[in-house]
Specification:
The chain is built from 20 helices and 18 strands. By secondary structure, it is of the alpha/beta class.
Length: about 575
Amino acid sequence: MPDIHPLGIRAKVLLSSVFGPYAQDDAYGSRKINPMELYHNQVTRFQGVFSLRMFHRSFGLLMIQSNIDAPCTLLDFPTRERFVEELQERSYDIIGISGIIPNVRKVAEMCRLARQIQPKATIVVGGHVTNAIDVESMVDADHFVKGDGVAWFRRFLGQEPAAPVRHPAIYSGFGMRILGYNPKEKPGDTAAVLMPSVGCPMGCNFCSTSALFGGKGHFVNFYETGDALFDVMHQIEQRIGIHSFFVLDENFLLHRKRALRLLELMQQNDKSWALYVFSSARVLESYDIEQLVGLGISWVWTGLEGNNASYAKLSHVDTKALVRKLQSHGIRVLGSTIIGLEEHRPEDMPEIIDYAVSHATDFHQFMLYTPNPGTALYEKHKADGSLLSSDEIDVADTHGQDRFSFRHPHIPAGWETRFLADAFMRDFEVNGPSLARLIRTQLAGWKRYHQHPDARIRRRIAWENRFLGTTYAGAVWAMDRWFKASGRPVADLSDLLADIQRHFGWQAKVLAPIIGMRLLMSMKAENRRLQEGITYEPETFFEKNPAAMAVDRELAGKHKPVEDTFRPVAVVTPAMA
């Protein structure tokens, strides 16, 4: 651990994510196949106009900014030119840059620019990129921070690292686009992000996040108790008026005592929040469905990995039955499957893909088996000499959506790209657009719970399904017409629309074709744009914490107003640790 910075909390800090654009092929490591869009990158990228397009903020940087008392400016998704402009216009004592391993050249370039323009600044690099091979020789930085950046920065600035963690009150996503349509994002429509813990004690051998925070058996709890977590959620609800939370925790329900205490408090305080969580299948099975519904679990991202995958989190779990049960209660499921496990062989891949697709999850992520530096899987392949050298694969291409970074024992080099594409396309062909699957699952939940005796559950179901008889009915109408026009009618879509209209009556019957026609037009326009090669990029965010704004006021004069772009992200502090 380095000494405390000489200026302590008087040090001016700049935090930045790596520069864009991202969805293009360039010398810095951007790849068109690897855009800054989680869903379109790894989940729906072969679904064309039906693909869910949206961006997510750099949550780790936001968490650090919220928990240091020094003046701190955050530059999220800058261009290279905007990053240079910031360095030229304002002086900083500490410059922190975060990235993932495929972006190591961007991190190196940003450190080079920082050293050139502000040579007196201390440069700190964090995030998954710190596990990159030879990162300390590639990147000119003073400190490389692995693990908990909040505690590290607090120590470096002379603050108490174990102080209660303040949580930013922020939305989980922005820039949503689907069917060529940008829904207007009203306050409360988008979930807030909630970060109870980082790391995962399950310690799967391929998991970079688990490895970054200590590996198997290790994790960092920001909020140990259900009381502290409830207090933070309640404050976030009051600050930004949300109804739902995207819980950024590798295995939220694994912390059973905390989760069940949260359920008690939600019941006692009549909270009808919806929670979107990550959870392993075995942990999900350990809860009664009444507990999951009571907690507001309405969306689950869970690892399916592959048939006969030897991971403890899947032990003795019938994942197909689990998915069907969750969906029948209105819980949308995003399943995650690995292509290229060590036992996979070319002749078995059609069966392996069909097994994954047969789960009929609402969304399905497919990723290549990838031994990222820092993981146990990487060490295994390093030991047996099967890792590809930097001459054989560019580090920018090790993102898991194109090719292996090791020599597979059975799959010839290059074949994995086709198998990955086959998996995405097969899922789309068999199960249809994820949007339609999501609507079908939500309708199942509405039918089961809209007359539930618990008013708290009824309110959540009503809120989550408020668009079923209007916008969603129109979307199904438009999707049905799209496939019929292409000569590939999907019977399930006609049945789904009829089911919606049966339950929502005249409203759905009248509005479905009206809204659907507008959506069909936007789909056609979007399809033309996609055929022309259009890509989407996130906007740049420039935010300052209160200490940084105070410095600006002091420099500019007490009576000069602070620009709106300098307004800080709202921050909440738990009343109970």
